[in-house]
């Protein structure tokens, strides 16, 4: 790899605004905001709207829409339309 062309890969905290959960990971993104982590070190923090801690698919709170029932209801409502 050529030196000097790659962004700096450093520890960053991602904070989920929906649940308040925070994750310490490594990334190339930076931020002007910082947060003190559990280990006593200060890291840049990136605020995200949704993460695996609050996404309905990962939390098991996903709702399944009854699309088959909707189609049947539509067909029942308009079965005599245009005859």
Describe the structure.
- The protein is of the alpha+beta class.
- It is 18% helix and 28% strand.
- The protein has 2 helices and 4 strands.
- The protein has helices at 56-59, 67-77; strands spanning 10-16, 22-27, 34-36, 42-48.
- The chain has a 4-stranded mixed β-sheet with strand order 2-1-4-3, with no helix packed on it.
- A hairpin with a 5-residue loop joins β3 and β4.
- The longest helix has 11 residues, at 67-77.
- The chain starts with 9 loop residues before the first strand and ends in a 6-residue tail after the last helix.
- The model has no long low-confidence stretch (mean pLDDT 82).
Show the helix and strand layout.
Elements: E1 10-16, E2 22-27, E3 34-36, E4 42-48, H1 56-59, H2 67-77
Parallel strand pairs: 1-4
Antiparallel strand pairs: 1-2, 3-4
How do the helices and strands follow one another from N- to C-terminus? EEEEHH
Mean pLDDT: 82
Binned, the helix content reads: 10-25%
- Largest sheet features: 4 strands, mixed
Fraction in beta strands = 25-35%
* Alpha carbon gyration radius: 24 Å
* Shape label: elongated
Number of helices: 2
* Strand line-up in the sheet with most strands: 2-1-4-3
- Total strands: the figure is 4
**Spans with pLDDT under 50 lasting ≥5 residues?**
none
Alpha-beta content class:
alpha+beta
Distance between the termini: 72 Å
